[in-house]
């Protein structure tokens, strides 16, 4: 068994159950482990620390599978981990033919680099670590076994793959190729998902609870949904009885999907304007036109995929929040989000606070938001808390 030997003092994070071993923490490697191979991690004193999957091309040189020396990471281990992840979520979403739920969420489920989403009768896997790639067949088989489904599709094409030295992979894993698109249901609303071309694994399941919160607040109000993608927030606002909804996205395909979802749910198209435009420019146009809104949703793409992009991302987040705050009526609500792992919660709040100062807007936080409960975050792994949100109100 290949071994990683840590430098003195570098075992402390592992002792606190943080699941990553960075290249700078390693003194030397015993043996010649290949990508994804299971390695034994040893402290500088020679004591056992963890079992991990090796990634020779990544700064995260190893990702922990387990902390117990007697454990053996094999197909039975993978099957048990996947089955446990599925079992722990049975209380979260009502089962049904069109159910949609995240079944495995990476490190929080003891499955480093493994995401498994269920959309109706199809499982979509996203594998973003060498450790996960090494166990692709075992993970797929275990997920099918745990759910009783027959179809699995892989959408491993996230940008982070380049940091792992892996090439994008989009392919059928089991069963027939998914019909595109197919329908899922969330809180009584229908949406279409295409796992081959949609964002992430096909749909933003992580925003489920936040869409429901907007639905509780949107009745009778004028809503602006920025970076609307396929209209998740916009559709929920219309379903709540919003007076009017304006949705913006730079993608024509996204705007077409949003319009399709409004029609599928038999919602009033006359109360919706769907605009294909750059959000930053469109917010300025609304300022020039004197437009005002009661609720604004800012759910932009990932501005800072890594810590190296934080400074540039901070400017972008401040810009859109500044313009949004200027467009809110007194008493208006701002749903503002960051899905950038490199931007921690405290920094995001400071950015929004700075935007409020520049916008000369008095605002207060009503609610802190995050990913839905099927996207758990391990207490020892704060990096997993990627989706940050603030519900703010102007006064």
Could you give a quick summary of the protein structure above?
The protein is an alpha/beta fold and 395 residues long. The protein has helices at residues 12-15, 75-87, 130-134, 136-147, 208-217, 232-239, 252-264, 279-289, 310-327, 345-358, and strands spanning 3-6, 20-22, 26-30, 38-42, 48-54, 60-66, 100-105, 114-119, 122-127, 151-156, 169-174, 182-186, 189-193, 222-226, 244-249, 272-276, 293-298, 328-338, 363-369, 388-394. The mean pLDDT is 95.
Please tag this protein with its features:
alpha/beta; 7-stranded mixed beta sheet; 395 residues; single chain; 20 strands; globular
Descriptive overview:
The protein has a seven-stranded mixed β-sheet, sandwiched between helices. Strands 2-6-5-4-1-3 form a six-stranded mixed β-sheet. The mean pLDDT is 95. The protein has ten helices and 20 strands. The protein has 395 residues and is of the alpha/beta class.
């Amino acid at each position: 068994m290949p071994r990683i030997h840590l430098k003195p003092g570098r075992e402390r994070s592992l002792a606190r159950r943080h699941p990553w071993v960075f290249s700078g923490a390693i003194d030397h490697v015993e043996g010649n482990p290949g990508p994804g191979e299971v390695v034994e991690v040893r402290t500088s004193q020679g004591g056992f620390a963890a079992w991990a999957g090796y990634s020779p091309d990544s700064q995260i040189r190893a990702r922990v599978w387990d902390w117990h020396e007697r454990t053996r990471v094999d197909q039975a281990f993978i099957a048990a981990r996947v089955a446990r992840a599925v079992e722990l979520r049975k209380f979260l979403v009502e089962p049904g033919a069109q159910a949609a739920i995240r079944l495995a969420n990476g490190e929080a489920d003891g499955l480093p680099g493994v995401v498994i989403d269920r959309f109706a009768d199809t499982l979509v896997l996203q594998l973003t670590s060498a450790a996960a790639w090494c166990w692709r067949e075992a993970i797929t088989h275990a997920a099918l076994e745990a759910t009783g489904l027959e179809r699995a599709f892989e959408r491993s094409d996230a940008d982070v793959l380049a940091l792992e030295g892996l090439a994008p992979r989009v392919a059928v894993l089991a069963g027939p190729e998914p019909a595109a698109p197919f329908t899922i249901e969330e809180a009584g609303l229908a949406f279409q998902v295409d796992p081959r071309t949609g964002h992430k694994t096909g749909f933003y399941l992580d925003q489920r609870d936040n869409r429901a919160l907007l639905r509780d607040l949107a009745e009778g109000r004028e809503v602006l949904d920025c970076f609307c993608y396929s209209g998740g927030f916009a559709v929920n606002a219309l379903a709540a009885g919003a007076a009017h909804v304006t949705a913006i996205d730079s993608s024509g395909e996204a705007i077409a999907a949003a319009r399709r979802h409004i029609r599928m749910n038999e919602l009033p198209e006359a109360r919706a304007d769907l605009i294909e435009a750059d959000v930053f420019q469109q917010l300025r146009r609304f300022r020039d036109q004197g437009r005002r809104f009661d609720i604004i949703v800012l759910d932009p793409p990932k501005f800072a995929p890594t810590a190296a992009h934080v400074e540039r991302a901070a400017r972008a987040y401040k810009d859109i929040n500044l313009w949004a705050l200027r467009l809110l009526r007194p008493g208006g609500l701002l749903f503002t989000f960051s899905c950038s792992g490199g931007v921690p919660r405290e920094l995001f709040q400071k950015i929004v606070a700075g935007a409020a100062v520049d916008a000369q807007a008095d605002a207060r936080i009503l609610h802190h938001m995050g990913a839905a409960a099927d996207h758990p975050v391990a207490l020892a792994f704060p990096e997993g808390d990627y989706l940050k949100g603030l519900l703010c109100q102007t006064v």
